[in-house]
Amino acid sequence: MTLLFTFPGYEELAKNLAGKLKCTQGDVTIRHFPDGESFVKLNTDVKNHEVILLCGLDHPDKKAMALLFFTKVAKELGAKSVGLVAPYLGYMRQDKRFHGGEAITSTIFAAFLSQHIDWLITIDPHLHRHKTLDEIYKIPAKALHAAHSIATWVNKNIDHPVLIGPDEESEQWVSDVAQQANAPFIVLKKIRHGDQDVEVSVPDVELYKDHTPVLIDDIISTARTMIETITHLKKSGMKPPICIGVHAVFAKGAYEALLESGVESVVTCNTIPHASNAIDTSDIIAQVI
Amino acid sequence: MTLLFTFPGYEELAKNLAGKLKCTQGDVTIRHFPDGESFVKLNTDVKNHEVILLCGLDHPDKKAMALLFFTKVAKELGAKSVGLVAPYLGYMRQDKRFHGGEAITSTIFAAFLSQHIDWLITIDPHLHRHKTLDEIYKIPAKALHAAHSIATWVNKNIDHPVLIGPDEESEQWVSDVAQQANAPFIVLKKIRHGDQDVEVSVPDVELYKDHTPVLIDDIISTARTMIETITHLKKSGMKPPICIGVHAVFAKGAYEALLESGVESVVTCNTIPHASNAIDTSDIIAQVI
């Protein structure tokens, strides 16, 4: 039998996922003592079961020890395997020793996880110098794409959408969502007139004045790129956009700043628990388990 | 050559220790990003050197990943060995599966550390069901006693001290400090008159009315035991005591409550950085390295 456990914050995603996988939910107590130590107790018998743990790895330091304790006690108590569904995968940015003496945390963290779990599923990880997860993970590690979940949500919720990519780098990603949502898309273009003089243009804007602009990015952290893009859309006469992010990382104050920047609304996938979560990713996860 | 690095908070202890060991201090940058990830950068070349890291393991979850990154990058960059001086050792209380399904965090955490460091030195760890560190650590692991540091401090700072143990369990520990400080000691006695009716007596109190009571305990966490003991000392007519703890764990509000409970002062060893730190442990650490 397969048992699905979840760390605090992912209860709704766990429920959706368990429904789609037709598997039983296990119960685990995770507590943090005032002295900063963690307590982990499995309340469901795992003996001879395949265990899936749902635990996003935003704020990874807070969770790493509890995750270690979970995997160890599950194995000690007879779990056949422990797989991790981490809708957001932390420690993917320091993928190089940029300056002498720096720890390459992406590789070290991947080795730490590889040692304690049997497989990993994540959604749109930050792959830059590492081209695939297999370069750093020694276990089966699969990167899913939220494009399908986002396209489904856009289809269902937005009339006459036009998808917007904030820069040329986002073209492939935005065109993928657009194709699946059967919607048009445009990508903002930077025209350099000099070192400091950069003009941003919104191509074909006249075609889409009556459409609802849907601005898409993978991670919203400081929200600076989004807010800047919104300014350009406004200037060119478009309607207030709906902003979609895959991962609601949101630095302090960033969500509030984005809400006040003249958007229609801000919507994210449920990969990191946040007030803006509206796009369910249980479909794409369930498909590969 | 031996290089001594320190995590934030232990700078003074590191300076004292480096002075006594006549070793060079290494420089490391430890930063925490707003998204909860850690950054570690060695600013001193460790190639072919023996590395000592000073990092207490109070709030271990906050530090475990940075500690892992430190040990890995030090080894990658050619350190001959990485030893850990953790003046306070966390995860020592859950030394048993008290209820089914619980992770035995003392054992799992010890295995985690054993994998990444070459040796461990700590001070007065909470050894209860584990009788020695060797039961759970696979590396050389040494538990030092703060008694000598405390006795030296008492000798130097208190006229006519009488050392006080809060209960009979503390007798061995308090008598050890008393002997080294060449001072008398008393241990409070509980006399049971019934299930609910417990009388606490202060033996030989008449002998010590003019002495300065020095109340000693290993960990001050909630400070409840100390505050209760202070009430008994007051009732029996003793002077306001000086309270000494080895480890300044202090739950929220506990230090303030202790200060307001009628003490002369509160003093702790520098094993966990805290405003009350006054007793230096660099002597006992330097002796064994």
Search tags:
homodimer; 289 residues; alpha/beta; Rossmann fold; 6-stranded parallel beta sheet; 8 helices; globular
Give the count of helical stretches of chain A: 8
Helix content of chain A: 25-40%
Strand count, sense and closure of the main sheet of chain A? 6 strands, parallel
Mean pLDDT of chain A: 94
Task: Specify the structural class of chain A.
Answer: alpha/beta
The total domain count of chain A is: 2
Look up the CATH topology of the largest domain in chain A. Rossmann fold
Quaternary structure type = homodimer
Order of helices and strands of chain A: EHEEEEHEHEEHEHEEEEHEHEEH
How many β-strand runs of chain A? 16
**What is the terminal separation of chain A in angstroms?**
13 Å
Strand order of the largest sheet of chain A: 2-1-5-6-7-8
Shape of chain A: globular
Q: What is the name of the CATH architecture of the largest domain in chain A?
A: 3-Layer(aba) Sandwich
